[in-house]
Design a protein that fits this description.
The complex is a heterodimer of chains A (about 325) and B (about 80). Chain A is α+β, with helices and mostly antiparallel strands and about 325 residues long. Helix content of chain A is about 30%, strand content about 20%. In chain A, a hairpin with a 5-residue loop joins β3 and β4. The longest helix of chain A has 15 residues. Chain B has a single domain, classed as 2-Layer Sandwich (Translation Initiation Factor IF3). Chain B has a 4-stranded mixed β-sheet, covered by helices on one side. The relative contact order of chain B is 0.26. The chains are: A alpha+beta (about 325), B alpha+beta (about 80).
């Protein structure tokens, strides 16, 4: 793959710095995070900011270090939510990394390995959020960051179907969903749910106002649950839609859905096994999406076995079906 | 349910999101807990969004009536 060469900046760094090996810790360079700039001797130092979240005390300290080490006094927010200090002289690498370590800030990575996960705000404070994406990003960063893979391996977490974290273009993406459950006893037939549903999955019965639910149209966003004034719509369960094989870059690919309603506690296992499969089947420089195309999605699913297979499928329409309606839901 | 006593009214027809919710919030702030506000909201975006936000702020929607192109809601102010 041509883009392997372009994007794998680690190799370039190592080559460039061979003459001054005594000044630079090559182990730091290998895990990446040091990206060569156009300017002679100057590099971008990318920090590790899973989910793009950072406490303010650390941010203040990083600001001081950026002021000290950036020859131009600038930082950049990377496309994957990590803060980068620009214009750092390679001779200052060890000093900067040392100072970053003191404030508990690690340097990120480039190259063929599990990358820093990205995430939206998630259910902690975003009203649309269905899953705790920040907690998941932290977990992935702790457990899987830096694991070697045939090519880069990007993960992300979106808390709802709006999918701000773009799970559809990740090597492995997780998007929060909720399965709605309707109970007639609490329903007053107010029709707000049918108005609130942006997917036309809920139609209000013309006589009673009660919902006729089409499960095939439902994307599990939970708008009906949040809008219902009487708690007639409730959350049956939360989970993740799991998507694999997406990428952006020069030849973008859309991922495919491999699981619906994967619970939080099964996410680590899903990643662990997927990385295992990728390392066993992917060629060097081949993204997992291309490996899946070559080897076959069914082989991957077979390998994943019970991790995905044990997750119960979404129940079909259980909402109100009026006696005389011709449009029977789901 | 139709006999819920109304303490205040707010007609938000023609008012767009999120101004309609902000006006609702301000109105509720001027009221006592337990009092009831009758809201008139357009169909479409306003009825998709405002009830969710009202619930999230801890108020209770007691009654919803669908009219032609708009909704009448009775909202009880939370604690």
């Amino acid at each position: 793959m041509t883009d392997h060469f372009i994007e794998d900046k680690t190799t370039k760094v190592a080559v460039k710095l061979e003459g001054v090996a005594e000044k630079v810790d090559f182990n730091d360079l290998k895990t990446g995070g040091f990206i060569k700039q156009r300017q002679k001797d100057l590099f971008t130092v990318r920090m590790r900011c899973p989910g793009g979240r950072m406490d303010t005390k650390r941010l203040v300290e990083i600001a001081k270090l950026a002021e000290k080490y950036s020859k131009k006094g600038v930082v950049h927010f990377s496309f994957r939510q990590s803060l980068e200090i620009l214009y750092v002289d390679y001779k200052d690498f060890n000093a900067l990394v040392g100072e970053l370590e003191k404030i508990g800030q690690k340097v990120a990575s480039c190259g063929p390995r599990v990358r820093v996960p990205t995430a939206c705000g998630g259910c902690e404070y975003n009203p649309n959020g269905l899953t705790d994406t920040q907690k998941m990003a932290e977990m992935v960063d702790k457990k899987f960051f830096g694991m070697p893979t045939p090519h880069k391996f990007k993960t992300s977490f979106s808390g709802c179907p709006i999918d701000c974290a773009r799970t559809k273009e990740m090597d492995f993406g997780f998007q929060g969903i909720v399965e709605p459950l309707w109970e007639e006893t609490n329903c007053t037939g107010c029709t707000i749910c049918s108005e609130a549903c942006k997917e036309d999955a809920i139609e209000a019965d013309a006589d009673t106002g009660k919902p006729i639910f089409d499960s095939k149209k439902c994307i599990y966003c939970g708008d009906c649950i949040r809008a219902c004034p009487t708690e007639a719509w409730r959350a049956k369960r939360y989970g993740h839609i799991v998507r694999i094989g997406g990428k952006h870059g020069r030849h973008p690919m859309e991922s495919v859905e491999v699981c619906r309603f994967l619970p939080d506690e099964k996410v680590p296992e899903a990643i662990k096994k997927t990385v295992e499969w990728y390392n066993a089947n992917g060629k060097r420089g081949e993204r997992i999406g291309n490996a899946l195309k070559r080897v076959g999605l069914e082989k991957y699913l077979e390998f994943m076995g019970p991790v995905f297979a044990d997750v119960a499928p979404a129940a079909t329409a259980r909402a109100y079906v009026p006696n005389f309606s011709v449009k029977q839901g789901g | 349910m139709g006999d819920v006593k109304v303490d205040a009214q707010l007609d938000l027809r023609g008012v767009v999101c999120p101004i309609n919710f902000v006006k609702t919030k301000l109105k509720l702030e001027s009221m006592e807990a337990g009092e009831v506000l009758e809201l008139t909201l357009d169909s479409g975006e306003p009825i998709q969004n405002v009830p969710k936000s009202i619930k999230e702020e801890g108020h209770k929607i007691l009654e919803v009536k669908k009219e032609d192109g708009f909704f009448r809601l009775k909202v009880q102010k939370g604690e």
